[in-house]
Specification:
The chain has about 425 residues and is mostly beta strands. It is about 5% helix and about 50% strand. A hairpin with a 4-residue loop joins strand 18 and strand 19.
Length: about 425
């Protein structure tokens, strides 16, 4: 996979260089020169409510993601953007899909297994083609998406149209996307055919309520509408609404559930599953929100964001975000930010052993529970509009370094580091 990723990047660079050498005439372009974003992020979290172990257990996880985004002007009106990335993660909770394949002498949901199930690699490829009309007031785009990891494959496509008018002070846009996904279902080890372990303890015979999923497809369809308006010299606002419909296997096959009316069975301190998560095979989501940006001065801009979310699983949520970039000089800008989030629980969420075996749907995934979250962030950007710094034949345009701390009321907390650089390809 890494070798394929490297080959793709080399091909893209070769296309850019040939395109630039063949284009000797000058026309005012949508994008004057090719740009390359090199992005890296590191995410680390911890908590004690892992869905893999029925809502109780370690949620320790780390994820390192590397991304390349190449924007290439094909001619005066058309731009091709290619986004490719690799994400490698190590998850304590995922490792407990099979807690018995590690070297720990005592098996516990609060410890990570050292087996192979603790890590995975996701790779994705996302090209986008964009065309602008001669007057730059009409913009069309088409995109595709493909990603792969050990137990999940996704392919998608979509497009958008934007119209600018009122001397480009007003913009309306519509976009749509389709994702056709499939699981390679991985079930908890104790539910797999042929499982036997003479260390099982409990009253009676261990006989879980389990059958494998017969349909492993998941389809997602979305339509987005947005409207933005420059209200005056200092104030700009926008509104948006999304309509999202999902169907197919919306349950996660390796997330355990424990019933209140079933006997408990253990291997050491690890409780064996009574069942796996069961959720409806359809879901409809409606996020509605807006942005308001106010130019307080040449040095400070206040950016605000609000979103209301509803779905037919019973979740409603509110998100509010504020960011106030502070421009220190022509090259350096600071980015303090704060985000607040709150949601109600899904109709099918139950804490450990609160669900009954007679229920049709149930989950102990705390992402579907009632909680509040706060996120504090800070960043710094270096920008050189003249691209005076050079790396080979690349001109360095920007460097962005950001850190955010996320804290949730159910005990989950996370740290996110991101480093991004933008180069202009001469």
């Amino acid at each position: 996979m890494k070798k394929l990723f490297f080959i793709l990047v080399c091909i893209l660079f070769n296309i850019v260089l040939h395109a630039q050498q063949d284009n000797t005439s000058y026309t005012k372009k949508v994008l004057e020169a090719s740009e390359l974003d090199v992005l890296f992020s590191y995410y680390s979290q911890d908590g004690q409510n892992a869905a893999v172990t029925g809502g109780e257990g370690t949620e320790e996880l780390t994820d390192a993601t590397s991304t390349l985004v190449l924007r290439m002007p094909l001619n005066a009106d058309d731009v091709l953007t290619v986004d490719v990335g690799l994400s490698a993660y190590t998850s304590a909770s995922s490792s407990n899909v099979n807690p018995l394949d590690g070297s720990n002498p005592n098996v516990s949901p609060f410890d990570a297994s050292s087996g192979e199930s603790r890590k995975d690699l996701l790779a994705y490829f996302n090209p986008t083609y964009q065309h602008s009309s001669d007057d730059r007031n009409n913009i069309w785009s088409a995109n595709a998406y493909v990603s792969n990891e050990y137990d999940y494959f996704s392919i998608g496509f979509g497009g958008s149209y934007a119209k600018l008018f009122n001397e480009r002070n007003t913009e309306i846009s519509i976009s749509g996307r389709v994702f056709l996904d499939s699981w390679n279902s991985q079930y908890p080890i104790e539910l797999r055919q042929g499982f036997f372990d003479d260390r099982i303890t409990g009253t009676g015979i261990y006989a879980p309520n389990f059958s494998e999923f017969t349909d492993e497809k998941r389809n997602t369809y979305s339509v987005s509408l947005s409207f933005s308006q420059i209200l005056n010299k200092k104030l700009q606002g926008s509104l948006f609404v999304d309509l999202v419909s999902q169907s197919g296997l919306l349950s996660t096959p390796f997330q355990r559930v424990y019933f209140g009316d079933a006997n408990d069975f253990f291997i050491d301190d690890f409780q064996l599953a009574d069942a796996i998560e069961q959720l409806p095979d359809s879901r409809f989501k409606i996020p509605v929100g807006g942005r308001l940006n106010y130019y307080l001065s040449d040095a400070i801009v206040v950016r605000s964001y609000y979103r209301f979310y509803y779905d037919d699983w019973g979740i409603t949520s509110h998100t509010a975000n504020i960011e106030a970039p502070i421009k220190l000089n022509d090259k350096f800008t600071l980015y303090p930010s704060y985000r607040y989030y709150t949601q109600t629980a899904a109709d099918y969420f139950y804490a450990k052993e609160d669900a009954l075996s007679t229920f049709e749907f149930y989950t102990s995934d705390y992402d579907l529970s009632n909680y509040q979250a706060n996120q504090l962030g800070f960043g710094v950007q270096y920008k050189d509009i003249f691209n005076s710094a050079r790396v080979f034949f690349f001109g360095l345009q920007t460097i962005n370094l950001r850190y955010s701390y996320y804290d949730r009321s159910d005990g989950l907390n996370a740290s996110i580091f991101t480093l991004g650089t933008t180069f202009v390809i001469d």
